[in-house]
Amino acid sequence: MAFYKEMTLRTSYIGKGAHGGDLLGEITDFCKARGITLGRVEALGALVRAKLGYYNQNSRRYETLEFDEHLEITNLVGNVSLKDSQPIVHAHVTLANDRGIAYGGHLVPGCEIFACEFVVQAFDGPQLNRGFDEQTGLPLWNEE
Ligand code: ZN
After folding, report:
1. Got the DSSP string for 10-55?
2. What is the Å distance from ligand 1's center to 40 Cα?
3. What separation in Å is there between the alpha carbon of 89 and the centre of ligand 1?
């Protein structure tokens, strides 16, 4: 059964990630430093190299894809919630190469920032917490 929770916007932030920084690490650290445990994230920019996750639904394991090339971040969309009482950023990205060919996947550590402009929105409302989901094997949101 699907569920949802209603929340309100507390604050919006707009900023720049550090050249040479790790994309997921920068966003996660930004949220942790401001106590953001519920929110949404978006970003664009460019990467020096990238690593993406692909969840294999049969094996129930993440496979890792590595791209040792310069890529545009044409889209990053994600959310912030809690897992094991720690803020966790779950984001997916679409990246394009020098021919405009796009790759996409689950954002994991290993994406080195060339340039990054991000928006983080912090919400007030009932906290969303991640826990093991039997149906998928993923750390999805618990209903309570
Ligand atoms: Zn994902």
Report:
1. EEEEEEEPPTTSBHHHHHHHHHHHTT--SEEEEEEEEEEEEEEEEE
2. 14
3. 10
Which pTM value belongs to this model? Answer: 0.96
pLDDT of residue 121: 98
Provide, rounded to the nearest whole percent, the portion of the chain with pLDDT above 90: 97
The CATH classification of domain 10-124, taken from the options 3.90.226.10, 3.40.630.30, 3.30.1330.80, 3.50.50.60: 3.30.1330.80
CA of residue 94 to ligand 1 center, whole Å:
12
Q: How far is the CA of 93 from the centre of ligand 1 (A)?
A: 9
At 127 the pLDDT is: 96
